[in-house]
Every structure is written in structure tokens, then in C-alpha cells.
Amino acid sequence: MHTKMLMRLSSLFLGILGLAASFMPQEILAHYGARSSGLGALLLQVVGALYLGFAVLNWMARDILIGGIYARPVALGNFLHFSVVGLTVWKAIASGTSMGSDIVAGAIVYSVFAVWFGLIVFTHPTKQ
Known about the structure:
Blueprint: H1 4-23, H2 25-31, H3 39-60, H4 72-94, H5 101-122
């Protein structure tokens, strides 16, 4: 399975989220009706740094053969991240919590990446 596009798209997606969370935490919190100062802003900046780290990791690994035993930690880390966040957001949506269309769109994007990385983790790689 070809992974160059997956790694580039996931890097772009995580990079955008990471930059936004790192440099605009108050605005993001205010958009969702949360208090825009204190611990929430700090935690959002920490999450942004984590996303930027994953974005750089994916960008640097974009030309590496991924799947099977090759670059397994990269594929497995991405699979777990996208799967857990995707399931968590879908669970929140299913519980009846009022969610905007941007949250539903995010859940869809996370689910697509989770399935795609799952295919990479659990199938044999092919040359690109």
C-alpha cells in the first residue's frame, strides 16, 4: 500500500491543528464556549506541541517504506492516535452532547486516518 500521500496528508492535518492550538488557544476555547484562560489554554498549547511533533515525524517519514515491520512504531503511533481520538469524539457525539458540524467533520477525518493507518499497520507493505 502506498503511504506517501497518507504521510503527507496526516502531516498537513496535524500541522494545521498543532499551529492553531499552539498559537491561538484562547480563540479556540472561546469558539467552543470554554473559559479562554488558565489551565485550558495551557493544556491546549501542550496538545498543539504534541500535534506539531507528530506532524514533523510524519513529514520526515513520508518517503520511508511503512507497513509490516518497516517503520512500525511510526505507523502504530499514528494508528493509535487517530483511532483513540476518533472513537472518543464519536462517543461524545453519540452521547447526545451538542456538537457543531466542525466536530463531526473532525470525527470523520480522524476516522478516515485511523482506517488508513490501520491498513498500513496490519498489511504487508509495497514499494512506492
